[in-house]
Structure formats: C-alpha cells, structure tokens
Amino acid sequence: MIFDTDILIWVQRGNSKAAGKIENAGVRCLSIQSYMELLQGANNKKQQQYIKDFLADFDFRVLPLTDNIGHRAAVYVEEYSLSSGLRAGDAIIAATAVENNMPMMTSNIKHFQPVRELKLRRFKP
Q: How high is the pLDDT of residue 79?
C-alpha cells in the first residue's frame, strides 16, 4: 500500500484511525514526493528527525522517482491538469502507485479521481 502524504499528516495530528490504517498495512510505501512533502512541512530539524524515525519505526519504503514514473506523471499532468486541476506532486504520487502496481490510500480522493488506472483506497478521518 502506498500512502498519500495526507495520511501521515493525519497521524501527526493524533488521528488514531489513520495510525491504525498504517499499523494494519502489510507493506508500507511512500512516493519520494510524499517523503519530501513531509520533510518540507517540518518546522525544524527535530521535527524532520521525528518524521524520519517514524518512517523507519514503521518500516516504510520510500519509492524512488524513476524514468517511467516521471514519464507517466508528465502524461497525467498533460491529460488532467486543465480539466481536473491535477498538480505535479499528486501526479508523481499517482504515477508511483500505478508503476508499482500498488493501491494508494488518501483522504483527497478528488485530487486523484481522474487517474482511472489508479487503485484508490478512501480514508475518512
């Protein structure tokens, strides 16, 4: 399972339901895009280290940006940005899930709905 950035933000805010989804996932993955978004959202080095420790403690695998993911994300932006407002970061996250043939959990279904081949799992906080 690939987790969208928002799920980890819910955990940081103390949402036990989001924490349970992560705990119960067999395989825990993040796109490199989500990893960078989490680090960028930290206010200081201590918070960045907390994020890194959390991901290590729960055995998250950060999936790299490959040529195929980059190409697919660019296709998604070209295809969906004008009609649905798909942003580059979300396109990279979606392409990572599709290229790795993994479902993705998010509470931001609207952001990803246009990507038909994406296997979305809705999280309701």
A: 96
Cβ pair 1, 96 in contact under 8 A? no
Measured between alpha carbons, how far is 60 from 50 in angstroms, rounded to an integer? Answer: 14
For residue 35, what are its two tokens?
Answer: 């990893």
pTM comes to: 0.94
Using DSSP, state whether 17 is helix, strand or coil.
helix
Could you please state the CATH topology (level 3) that the domain comprising 2-122 is classified under: Rossmann fold (3.40.50)
What single-letter amino acid sits at 64? P
In 3D space, the residue among 1, 29, 6 whose CA is nearest the CA of residue 90 turns out to be 6
Contact by Cβ (8 Å): 1, 121: yes
Domain ranges of the chain: 2-122
